[in-house]
Structure formats: structure tokens, C-alpha cells
Design goal:
The complex is a heterodimer. Chain A contains seven helices and twelve strands. Chain A is α+β, with helices and mostly antiparallel strands. In chain A, strands 3-2-1-5-8 form a five-stranded mixed beta sheet, with no helix packed on it. Chain A has a five-stranded mixed beta sheet with strand order 4-10-9-6-7. In chain A, helix 2 runs antiparallel to helix 3. Chain A starts with a helix and ends in a 6-residue tail after the last helix. Chain B has a single domain, classed as Cytochrome c oxidase-like, subunit I domain (Cytochrome C Oxidase, Chain A, Up-down Bundle). Chain B has a two-stranded antiparallel ribbon. The longest helix of chain B is centred in the N-terminal third of the chain and has 36 residues. The chains are: A alpha+beta, B mainly alpha. Chains A and B meet through helix 2, helix 3, strand 7 and strand 9 of A and helix 3, helix 8, helix 9, helix 10 and helix 11 of B.
Chain lengths: 326, 557
């Protein structure tokens, strides 16, 4: 608690809360550049307005037509800005190195980005979550992978961002300094629901963090509840609406679908049953619904992504929504 | 017509018999469609790009109106996410490829370059016409994507999303490929024209600064555009036959695409802004009736920007996971571009000092440019600084920054230049008061649209979001109100220009008091521009140019 009183967490006009060890340095350079801009901008505009007024075309006045040229002035306004940008570059690069050089004593968390879901896996006990939980005042290292297209991990309160690139690992680190809940955005355009690829970071105390980890590995006993649990954790909810949760599209709604006939884009009709759900998960393109031809393709889930018994649980969950309002 | 060797010709009055000029030189559809006259090609380009600008502008307004609400519930939103993504992609692609890149060089440049050089035409008139038709074909490809499933990748076509999306990426890439050739042809033509067709006496340092700017632009067009052609072709191949260069599923690397793409698209930023800077150099000196301050520095800085512009593409990828050393080197190189840009701004302001500053429509746009471009340039410092960019990258701060440069800079300069040369191109004077009004509305609307976006970006609002967190709503609404205002301003400008075509007074030869050669032929220019080669003087010597009440224009004393 003391930390949050000492730290400057006041939200300003410009920045969101400063909640990581990078924030002070970034904000300092930002405001330094802002003042440099003001110092350049105000005289330029003032001179512009003054000259426009003083030398305005009017009866009885005729200014000089001769082209001016003044070496002293021209050298000055070349050299002074050069020195200033050298400083900006230097400070920016130094701050960047601090962000990109991961310290040795880190808590490592795996990050999996996919359309349009963030998934975090914790090394301590293999727990998985869609909300990022991190303990306050510890160095956190993220080991990031993308399952499909480019994404970018961005927490404005931490002033930290790094792209997540399919086919390679990218890394980033930060040290959260203030407990709280902060927005986590995807900032690299990734298709239809790019703007829904938002989650939260919970910066919590060490004890609460431990408790959350323990909570994460407790799968519900009831098969329907377990289905819902996987629905939330395996990115289904980022495209399919179910009950009253999840995104409304681009994928079909689960509510009231079970047992009903489904029109496919090749003109045939199938029944929404166990086999149809399994096909849609393992080989999503094979039985595409009519009306979804241009929708973003669903990724295939192999047996290692989603085990058979997990599929069964999801089927039970969809079945339970048989009479839910679409 | 006007014998330039004896500049004191009788003022042209409306009572005179119908004069002969390029617009009435011949008539009929084919006389335009098959014309080799650079002026007619320039006018056709002008009509084409203004139509493209109108389309892009409608998409821009659609974006802003969609973002009036946070759209947390997609059922209540103006557009679905899918439609929104198509709209912002087409807004960007149309504005960049069909409007800004050809705007100044192909429309104004085509019209003015030969006249400023005192020649009859460009070096390769047929190549010039073919570049226009390539532009038209490129436009058709884009219209095709519009009519089919649209395109939803953003104008940057980033892989692997552009490989897997079901939207019409392939026709769009062919469109870009063809438009690239249009751009290369124009650049090549201008380089040869400037190198070989300058009149006796016009040394490099007696060239109008607009031509320096167009020359620097042409060099970039010729050197960088082929890389774009290769990149989009590889992307099309990747989609069609899976060659595995960019697709991680086939062991390709998506970041390679970003390098290829920005190797063109960053220099392309200078293709967009350099000609606008050339326009401003003309406008500031002519309307201040004063020689340009530091002519050589402005000329050199155009070339410096063109060269440095090739070395900074990496700053689009600071968060993409390049090595630290690469990232830092690109940051350092990025800052080098800021210096020649700053020099130009200082020189333009210095030009007004002790001059005779006329407040008219072109000058209002030029002053507006100085204000907006300075903000655009200065906010680049935030993004060049690496640690700050880690926070601002891919947020609305970037959106605001490049709109200040591309729209506040290039578009405002283009409209200013259009007003400046409109009497020359059409032979008609426009209503100056209404023109000034349009400039003021555009200025207010522009700032209202994009100043809030700097704050949005700093507060963390990511780009290309169809919906957003509620706390951003107020700033988004301000921005939308600004966009509507901006639309009204541009509409007024359009009406002023159209009105002049029908009701405008006959334009004198030299309505503003310019000293470059285009002001020595009649308005509009005759088919052959000059009956005899004009004598070349200092393009910024205003000492002998006096206002002449009878003709309503300026004459050489």
C-alpha cells in the first residue's frame, strides 16, 4: 500500500496511470520533447503572424524584393536543432536499451496470441488464464508467440509494447510498481475483431498472485461448467456468442443451435450435433456454414490444442444452451 | 500569343476576340483521350485524383462517424467490424496510391513543369499519356476490390494476415503494381525533361524550387517504386501459389515483408511531401513578393531529404523485434531527416521578413501549411525517440502525426497550389474571399480532428480499432466534429473553384506577381506554351514586377 501512496499514480491529461518502472523515464522524455516543441513552435508561429501583419500588402507600402541570405543565421538554425536531436536520440536509445535488456531475476510467463485472444501460461504450476496476473514489484519476462498473424502486446500504463510475430519468439519485460487493473491492448491490426483483442492486467500482491495461480488449475467438476471453462480459455469466446458472454461474431452464435439443421455453403444441410461440432473444431473449413463464406477462417484445433474430453465438455456446454435466446 | 521577349504586352481584356489556348485548341472526346499535350494530361490527372480524393474523403468521414460511439455492442454500431476494416483500408489505400502520390507531381507537375522550363512539352509525351492510362487501370483494379469482397488488410498489406484473409488482396496488389509503373513513368519523364530540356540560361541554381522538389521526388519514384512492385508481386505469388517467403507456416518471415514494404513506403512519404514543399517555396515567395530566403539551402535540403529518406524505413518497425543495434541505428538516421525539414520551415518564415505579404487564398493555405507541417514535423521527434516510441507506436499519436504531415502538409499545400495556379490552368479567377473562408474552415476543422488524436494516442488508444474503451469517447467525438468541419471546408473550396469555371472573371497573365516562366504565357496557356523561347532570369527576382491596375495583374516593368 505504501508504494501506491509514494508513487505518482495520478492520471494526467496526457498519460494514463504510470504503473511500471519504465514509466518515469518515458514520461520525462515525452514532456522534455513536448517543451522543446513548444520552444520551437511558438516563435515560428509568432514570427509568421507578426510578419504577415507587419509586412502586409497595403496601399503606400512596398517592402523589399531582394532575396536574403545570411550564413550566420542559417548555420545557427542548422547546428542548434542538430544538437538538440542528438540529445533526444541519446536519451531515447538509453531508455530503449533498458526496456529491451531483460534482467536476470525474472518471473517468466508464456504469452500465446491468437485471433482474438490472449492466453497466459504460468511456469510455476502450468496454470492458464486470459487475464494477465502479475505480482507487484517483480521483474516479469514475457515469452511471446503467435498462433496465426501479427499481434502486439501493449499495456499503456506500463509504457511497454512489443510485437508478437508468428514463427519466432519475441520477448519483453517490465516491473509493475503499482497494484491495480490496467488495459492490455493488441496494437497490430489482426483482422475482424482486432478491437476486441483487449484484456486486463491485474497487478496484485505476492499472496494474491499465489492464490490466483492455485485457482487457475482448478477445473470445475460439472461437465457443463467445465465446457464453459474451456470455452473461455481456448479462445472460443472471442468469436462465438454463448449464453450472455463472448463476442457477437464473426463466428456463429451457440445459443439455440443444438439439434437444429444447419445450411452449409455448398447447399447441403447437416444437423448441429456432436459430429458437426467435432468437425468444426478439428477441420473448420470442411463444413462451412452458409453466410459465413467471407468471415475470417477459424483456426483448426488439433488434439494437442484441445483434447477429446475437452471437446466433449464444450459439446455439453453448447447442448446446455439449446433453449437459450440467440 | 504573348511574346515574352517584349514583356510589356497590352493587357488582355474580355472584349478581345476569342483567343487561342490549349483548352480550345481542338475539341471532341478523342482530342482529350489521345492528347499528348502535357497540360491536358495534367488536367485529366487532376480530375481523376480529385475524384479519388472525394472517394477517400467519404471513407474518412465514414470512419469518423462510426467512431462517434465506442461500439461495445456491435449490433448498435454504424458498421460491422468487417465493414469498418474494409473502410479504413480503402481510405488509406485510395488516399496513398490513387491520390497523394500522383497529386502534386502528376497533376500540377505535369501542367507546370514544361511551362516553368519554357518548353513545349515533357521529354516523352507518349510515355506521359501512358502513365495516365496506367493510373486509370490501377483505379479500375481498386474499384474491382470495392465491388467484390473489399480489402481488409490495411493499406500496408502486412503478412501473414494478407495471405490468409478471404478479401480481394490479389486484385488490389495488381492495382498497386500498375499504379507503381504509372508513378515510375512520370518520374522518369520528369528527370529526363529537367536534365535535357532546360532553356539556355537556366542553370541548376536558377531553377524554380518547385522543380527542384519535383526532381528530388522523381529520383525517389524511379529508385524506390520498383521495390514496391516486387513486394506486392511476391505477396500475390504467396497468396496464389504459396512460395513461402513471407508465410511463417511455410517457413517464411513476416518481418521480411515489413522491410520490403517500408523500403518503398518510407521514401514514398517523401514522394508525397517533397513536391508539397516545392509548392510552398513558390507560394511563400510569390505572395510575399520577395526572393526566397536561402535558395540554395532549400534546394540542397530537398536532395538531402530524398537521400536520407532511403535510410530510415526501419522506424516503422521499432517494436517488430529487430535487433537492438539495428533499432538504434534506424533511430539515429531518422533524426537526420528532421534537420533539412526544419531548415526549410525557417527559410519559408524568413522569406516573409521585410517583404510585401499579400493575404489571399493561396497564401492562407501556405501559412496554414507552415503551422500544420511544423506540428507534423515536431511530433515526429516523439516517435523517433526510441523509448517514447515504445509507448506511442501503433497508437492514434502516429495517426495524428502522419495526418499532420500528409494532410496538413501535402493536401493543404496541394489545395493552396491549386488555387495559386488555377487562374493559369483554367483562365478564370475565383472568389478570393470565399477561398480564404475555405482555408480558414479547413484549418480549424483539421486541428479539431487531429489534435485530440495526439492525446488519444498518448493515453493508449490503439490504431485501427472499430470499437474502443469508453474513456476515449469525448476525444473521439471532438475528432469527429472536426472531421465534419474539415469536410465542409473542403466542400467550400470545391464550390469556389467550380463557381469560378462558370462565373469567374478572366484571369490576367500574372495575377499574383510571380517571376517564374509560367507567368509569362497567357492564362490559360496556348497549345505550344511559348511562341518563342522565353528569356530566363532569376526565378525569384520580383524587383521589376509591378501591379497593373488595367489588367488586374502584374507586369514586368
Amino acid at each position: 500500500m505504501n508504494m501506491s501512496i509514494l508513487a505518482d499514480i495520478q492520471e494526467g491529461f496526457w498519460f494514463p496511470k504510470a504503473a511500471s518502472s519504465f514509466a518515469d523515464r518515458v514520461d520525462f522524455l515525452y514532456f522534455a520533447i513536448l517543451w522543446i516543441c513548444v520552444i520551437f513552435f511558438v516563435p515560428i508561429v509568432a514570427a509568421m503572424i507578426y510578419f504577415t501583419y507587419k509586412y502586409r500588402q497595403r496601399p503606400g507600402y512596398r517592402g523589399s524584393t531582394e532575396a536574403l541570405h545570411n550564413n550566420t543565421i542559417e548555420v545557427t538554425w542548422t547546428v542548434v536543432p542538430t544538437l538538440i536531436v542528438v540529445w533526444i536520440f541519446w536519451e531515447g536509445a538509453a531508455g530503449y536499451l533498458e526496456m529491451s535488456r531483460v534482467p536476470d531475476d525474472t518471473l517468466d510467463i508464456n504469452v500465446y496470441a491468437q485471433k482474438w485472444n490472449w492466453s497466459f501460461k504460468y511456469k510455476e504450476n502450468g496454470g492458464e488464464s486470459n487475464i494477465l496476473y502479475v505480482p507487484v514489484n517483480q521483474n516479469i519476462k514475457l515469452i511471446m508467440q503467435s498462433k496465426d498473424v501479427l499481434h502486439s502486446f501493449f499495456v499503456p500504463a506500463f509504457r511497454a509494447k512489443r510485437d508478437v510475430v508468428p514463427g519466432r519468439y519475441t520477448y519483453m519485460w517490465f516491473r509493475p510498481t503499482v497494484e491495480g487493473v490496467y488495459d492490455l491492448f493488441c496494437t497490430e491490426y489482426c483482422g475482424d475483431s482486432h478491437s476486441n483483442m483487449i484484456t486486463k492486467v491485474h497487478v496484485v500482491s505476492e499472496e494474491k498472485y499465489k492464490a490466483q495461480l492455485a485457482e487457475m488449475v482448478k477445473e470445475p467438476e460439472d461437465i457443463i461448467e467445465r465446457g464453459k471453462w474451456f470455452y473461455q480459455r481456448k479462445a472460443c469466446m472471442s468469436c462465438h456468442y454463448a449464453g450472455e458472454i463472448g463476442a457477437k461474431g464473426p463466428g456463429p452464435n451457440y445459443n439455440g443451435s443444438w439439434g437444429k439443421p444447419v445450411k452449409l455453403s455448398d447447399g447441403t444441410e447437416v444437423i448441429f450435433d456432436e459430429q458437426y461440432v467435432l468437425n468444426s473444431i478439428r477441420n473448420p473449413g470442411s463444413q462451412k456454414r452458409a453466410g459465413y463464406e467471407n468471415a475470417s477462417a477459424m483456426p483448426a484445433y488439433s488434439k494437442s490444442d484441445l483434447k477429446d474430453e475437452q471437446v466433449d465438455a464444450i459439446i455439453a456446454f453448447i447442448q446446455s444452451l439449446k433453449d437459450a435466446k440467440p | 500569343m504573348s511574346a515574352v521577349t517584349s514583356p510589356i504586352t497590352a493587357p488582355v481584356t474580355t472584349e478581345e476576340k476569342v483567343e487561342h489556348h490549349y483548352l480550345n485548341h481542338s475539341s471532341g472526346f478523342l482530342s482529350w483521350a489521345l492528347t499528348l499535350d502535357h497540360k491536358r494530361i495534367g488536367m485529366m490527372y487532376l480530375a481523376g485524383i480529385l475524384f479519388a480524393f472525394f472517394l477517400g474523403g467519404v471513407f474518412a468521414l465514414a470512419i469518423r462517424f462510426h467512431l462517434w460511439n465506442p461500439n461495445k455492442d456491435p449490433d448498435l454500431a454504424l458498421f460491422t467490424n468487417q465493414t469498418y476494416n474494409r473502410i479504413f483500408t480503402l481510405h488509406g489505400a485510395i488516399m496513398v496510391f490513387l491520390f497523394i502520390i500522383p497529386s502534386v507531381p502528376a497533376a500540377l507537375g505535369n501542367f507546370l513543369l514544361p511551362i516553368m522550363l519554357g518548353t513545349k512539352d515533357v521529354a516523352f509525351p507518349r510515355l506521359n499519356l501512358s502513365s495516365f492510362y496506367l493510373w486509370v487501370i490501377g483505379f479500375i483494379f481498386f474499384s474491382f476490390t470495392l465491388a467484390t469482397s473489399g480489402i481488409d488488410t490495411g493499406w500496408t498489406f502486412y503478412t501473414p494476415y494478407s495471405i490468409e484473409t478471404t478479401s480481394s488482396v490479389t486484385p488490389a496488389t495488381f492495382g498497386v503494381f500498375i499504379l507503381g509503373f504509372s508513378s515510375i513513368f512520370t518520374g522518369l519523364n520528369f528527370i529526363v525533361t529537367i536534365n535535357t530540356m532546360r532553356p539556355p540560361g537556366m542553370t541548376w541554381f536558377r531553377m524554380p524550387l518547385f522543380l527542384w522538389a519535383v526532381y528530388a521526388t522523381s529520383i525517389i519514384q524511379v529508385l524506390a517504386t520498383p521495390v514496391l512492385g516486387i513486394t506486392v508481386l511476391l505477396l500475390a505469388m504467396e497468396r496464389l501459389i504459396g512460395i513461402g517467403i513471407f508465410d511463417p507456416a511455410l517457413n517464411g518471415d513476416p518481418v521480411t515483408f515489413q522491410h520490403f514494404f517500408w523500403f518503398y513506403s518510407h521514401p514514398a512519404v517523401y514522394i508525397m511531401i517533397l513536391p508539397a514543399m516545392g509548392i510552398i517555396s513558390e507560394l511563400m515567395s510569390v505572395h510575399s513578393h520577395k526572393g526566397i530566403f536561402g535558395y540554395r539551402m532549400i534546394a540542397y535540403s530537398s536532395i538531402a531529404i530524398a537521400l536520407f529518406g532511403f535510410l530510415v524505413w526501419g522506424h516503422h518497425m521499432f517494436t517488430a523485434g529487430m535487433s537492438d543495434i539495428t533499432t538504434i541505428v534506424f533511430s539515429a538516421l531518422t533524426f537526420t531527416v528532421s534537420i533539412p525539414s526544419a531548415i526549410k520551415v525557417f527559410n519559408w518564415v524568413g522569406t516573409m521578413y521585410q517583404g510585401t505579404v499579400a493575404i489571399n487564398t493561396p497564401m492562407v493555405y501556405a501559412l496554414s501549411f507552415l503551422f500544420l507541417f511544423t506540428i507534423g514535423g515536431l511530433t515526429g521527434l516523439f516517435l523517433g525517440a526510441l523509448s517514447v516510441d515504445m509507448h506511442l507506436h501503433d497508437t492514434y499519436f502516429v495517426v495524428a502525426h502522419f495526418h499532420y504531415v500528409m494532410m496538413g502538409g501535402t493536401l493543404v499545400a496541394f489545395v493552396g497550389g491549386l488555387f495559386h495556379w488555377w487562374p493559369k490552368m483554367t483562365g478564370k479567377m475565383f472568389n478570393d474571399a470565399a477561398g480564404i473562408l475555405s482555408g480558414v474552415i479547413v484549418f480549424i476543422g483539421f486541428n479539431l480532428t487531429f489534435l485530440p488524436q495526439f492525446v488519444l494516442g498518448t493515453r493508449g488508444m490503439p490504431r485501427r480499432y472499430a470499437s474502443y474503451v469508453e474513456e476515449f469517447q469525448e476525444l473521439h467525438r471532438l475528432s469527429t466534429i472536426g472531421a465534419a468541419t474539415l469536410g465542409v471546408g473542403l466542400l467550400v473550396a470545391g464550390i469556389v473553384l467550380l463557381h469560378s469555371l462558370f462565373y469567374g472573371k478572366k484571369a490576367p497573365k500574372n495575377p499574383w506577381g510571380g517571376a517564374t516562366l509560367e507567368w509569362e504565357c497567357s492564362s490559360p496557356p496556348p497549345h505550344d506554351n511559348f511562341s518563342s523561347p522565353p528569356s530566363v532570369g532569376d526565378p525569384y527576382d520580383f524587383s521589376k514586377i509591378e501591379y497593373d491596375g488595367k489588367s488586374g495583374g502584374y507586369v514586368k516593368k
